[in-house]
């Protein structure tokens, strides 16, 4: 049995209670506890669901609630997820209704590459009874589980939202479920109270009308910064507008610092990001690379007042193509916790300097240049 670990921070933000969760050590037990407490509905969405120890723990929890009358809806991405037919059959037989998002119908390696170019569902969300929701960067596999729980302990961040923000997260899930023809819903279970938008918002890259919401949120927050901009991003190949806003802020005396991955499961993105470092350093942006277990988090905090946690990377796939979801929280106390997490993470980083960049082998520099030129397709 997995023992719950206290949240990194828990803050009341208007009518929503937000808990900042660091790594699978804090996030997974909280998610499993919420599933176990479900009474009517569970909506679960993930890019990666694996048939491993972590995936089986979540599958067991979902099956148990489905067998006890809870309507359990599961969306998993057809490219990112790897499961056996037996695993899926057991879910189905227990009453879990699943939607394979954009399944891979091509054979061979070329087919999988073509499938990758299609829109993918990169969201990570869990909503229970429309009352409590989770989102952030964690997928459901052993890579994200704590080392003490048999996982690889990847560094990631999630947020638990209790209150109206959970309903916003659920609406985004249900819109996708209906649009991509998931099983019929027992609609009366999803009747929720109306509410006015608060200081916790859920924003998603979904369909044509709101494809730019996450990018706009970042740009607006950073353009209004007066003191600090702190970003943690696993796959960092931002569009020119974001680079310009960051550079302009740093040149004006605002402290701009980014934590990026030194090791990654997608090396080409790391090479491409390094092709951007010289420009950031010349503008005065502090660049750090996280060392050790793989960094997968996507968070930001501006002026210790505005923060965001979600699934969206600052790259073309997240901002222009894939389905994503971020929580945006306008609260100084919660932002202070996100900033404290950022500063603690700096202790695990090396700072990138111009000298370090000059000393890189010529082959690495050429590879970074090439990857950066191809950034729109990464």
Brief descriptors of the model:
single chain, 378 residues, alpha+beta, Endonuclease, Chain A, 2 domains, 8-stranded mixed beta sheet, 13 helices, globular
Would you kindly provide a brief summary of this structure?
37% of the residues lie in helices and 24% in strands.
List the helices and strands and how they pair.
Elements: E1 9-13, E2 16-22, H1 23-36, E3 41-46, H2 53-66, E4 71-77, H3 85-93, E5 97-101, H4 108-116, E6 125-128, E7 132-136, E8 157-162, H5 164-179, E9 200-205, H6 213-223, E10 228-233, H7 240-251, E11 255-261, H8 267-274, H9 277-283, E12 286-290, E13 298-302, E14 306-310, H10 316-321, E15 324-330, H11 332-346, E16 349-351, H12 354-358, H13 362-373
Parallel strand pairs: 3-4, 4-5, 10-11, 11-12
Antiparallel strand pairs: 1-2, 2-8, 3-6, 6-7, 7-8, 9-15, 10-13, 12-16, 13-14, 14-15
Helix pairs in contact: 6-7, 8-13
Question: What would you say this structure looks like, in words?
Answer:
This protein has helices at 23-36, 53-66, 85-93, 108-116, 164-179, 213-223, 240-251, 267-274, 277-283, 316-321, 332-346, 354-358, 362-373; strands at 9-13, 16-22, 41-46, 71-77, 97-101, 125-128, 132-136, 157-162, 200-205, 228-233, 255-261, 286-290, 298-302, 306-310, 324-330, 349-351. The relative contact order is 0.14. The chain is built from 13 helices and 16 strands. It has an eight-stranded mixed beta sheet with strand order 1-2-8-7-6-3-4-5, sandwiched between helices. It has an eight-stranded mixed beta sheet with strand order 9-15-14-13-10-11-12-16, sandwiched between helices. The two termini are 39 Å apart. By secondary structure, it is α+β, with helices and mostly antiparallel strands. Helix 6 packs parallel to helix 7 (240-251) and helix 8 (267-274) packs across helix 13. The longest helix is centred in the middle third of the chain and has 16 residues, at 164-179. The chain folds into two domains: 9-190, Endonuclease, Chain A; 200-377, Endonuclease Chain A (Endonuclease, Chain A), CATH 3.30.870.10.
């Amino acid at each position: 049995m997995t023992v719950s670990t206290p949240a990194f921070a828990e803050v009341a933000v208007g009518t929503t209670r937000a808990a900042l969760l660091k790594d699978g050590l804090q996030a997974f037990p909280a998610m499993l506890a919420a599933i176990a407490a479900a009474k009517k509905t569970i909506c679960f969405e993930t890019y990666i669901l694996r048939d491993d120890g972590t995936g089986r723990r979540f599958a067991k929890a979902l099956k148990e609630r489905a067998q006890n009358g809870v309507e359990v809806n599961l969306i998993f991405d057809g490219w990112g997820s790897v499961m056996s037919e037996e695993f899926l059959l057991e879910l189905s037989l227990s009453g879990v209704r699943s939607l394979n998002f954009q399944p891979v119908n091509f054979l061979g390696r070329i087919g999988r590459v073509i499938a990758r170019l299609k829109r993918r569902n990169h969201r990570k969300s869990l909503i229970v009874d429309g009352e409590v929701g989770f989102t952030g960067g964690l997928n459901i596999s052993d890579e994200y589980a704590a080392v003490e729980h048999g996982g690889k302990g990847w560094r990631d961040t999630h947020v638990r939202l209790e209150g109206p923000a959970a309903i916003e997260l659920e609406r985004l899930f249900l819109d996708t479920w209906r649009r991509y023809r998931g099983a019929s819903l027992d609609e009366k279970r999803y009747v929720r109270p109306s509410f006015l938008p608060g200081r916790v918002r859920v924003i998603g890259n979904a369909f044509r009308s709101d494809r730019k919401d996450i990018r706009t949120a970042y740009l607006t927050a950073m353009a209004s910064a007066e003191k600090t901009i702190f970003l943690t991003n696993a796959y960092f190949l931002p569009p020119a507008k974001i680079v310009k806003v960051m550079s302009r802020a740093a040149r004006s005396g605002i402290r701009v610092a980014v934590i990026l991955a030194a090791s990654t499961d997608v090396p080409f993105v790391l090479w491409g990001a390094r092709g951007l470092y010289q420009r950031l350093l010349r503008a005065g942006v502090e660049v750090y690379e996280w060392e050790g277990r793989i960094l997968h988090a996507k968070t930001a905090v501006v002026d210790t007042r505005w923060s965001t946690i979600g699934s969206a990377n600052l790259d073309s796939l997240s901002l222009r193509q894939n389905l994503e979801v971020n929580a945006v929280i306008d609260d100084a106390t919660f932002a202070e916790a996100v900033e404290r997490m950022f500063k603690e993470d700096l202790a695990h980083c090396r700072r990138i300097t111009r000298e370090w960049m000059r000393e890189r082998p010529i082959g690495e520099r050429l590879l970074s240049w090439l990857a950066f030129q191809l950034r729109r397709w990464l």
